[in-house]
Amino acid sequence: MKFRPAAAVAGAFLAVMLLSGCEGRIREMAQAPGIQMAPETGMPRPQPADRLTESEPLLIGAFDKIDIDVYGVQDLHRAVTVDASGTFLFPLVGEVQAAGRDPRTIVADLTERLRPYVKNPQVSVNVVERVSQALTVDGQVLKPGQYQVIGRQTLMRAVATAGGTSEYARLDDVVIFRTVGGQRYVGLYNLAAIRRGNYEDPEVFANDIVIVGDSKARRMFQDFLAATPVLTAPLILLLTR
């Protein structure tokens, strides 16, 4: 039979007491108007409809498939796949930038570049298949911005794609915003804890907003972050207004 040192026992008891106190404080704060504790233990997965929002432009990304037609010119009808660099080749005009642009922008670009070859070109661009979509990574990362989601993406990979965290980034304060079924969820995570393997690296999806460290959006949940270290599990909140 092994005996634990008295200091270790006292430390474990203190940790339990602190976590109990934090839980009570969190529940009190969760009664604040507009915010409540979510019943989920993790961020719910978005459905396909959640990833296409009317408020967001239909941005084209790498490996998306698009159909291009020039009215009355059958030889210029093409079904193309955007390559890894975000471009595709089109007759007469050569390379066309597609990634990060919407169909209307590509229509305008092709129309202008086809004018020397086609009289009054009437171009249409339709997205046939969307393989990639964008998520936003902001805050204390080296390259904040929108990044295409191709295949399975996790929080750690998303941060790495954004160049990694800055030198003085607060790794214990990471917020993920997500809309599922018309409801707005917020997940509070500790990046350092994930790196240590304390809990699973969560999957992130198109239209998610990831904020690392200090930001105006994160400060909305300052009391929640102060009340719990988020060391062993993320804290999931539901915005009710």
TrEMBL record:
<protein>
    <submittedName>
        <fullName>Polysaccharide biosynthesis/export family protein</fullName>
    </submittedName>
</protein>
<keyword id="KW-0732">Signal</keyword>
<dbReference type="InterPro" id="IPR019554">
    <property type="entry name" value="Soluble_ligand-bd"/>
</dbReference>
<feature type="domain" description="Soluble ligand binding">
    <location>
        <begin position="136"/>
        <end position="184"/>
    </location>
</feature>
<dbReference type="InterPro" id="IPR003715">
    <property type="entry name" value="Poly_export_N"/>
</dbReference>
<dbReference type="Pfam" id="PF02563">
    <property type="entry name" value="Poly_export"/>
</dbReference>
<dbReference type="InterPro" id="IPR049712">
    <property type="entry name" value="Poly_export"/>
</dbReference>
<feature type="domain" description="Polysaccharide export protein N-terminal">
    <location>
        <begin position="55"/>
        <end position="127"/>
    </location>
</feature>
<dbReference type="Pfam" id="PF10531">
    <property type="entry name" value="SLBB"/>
</dbReference>
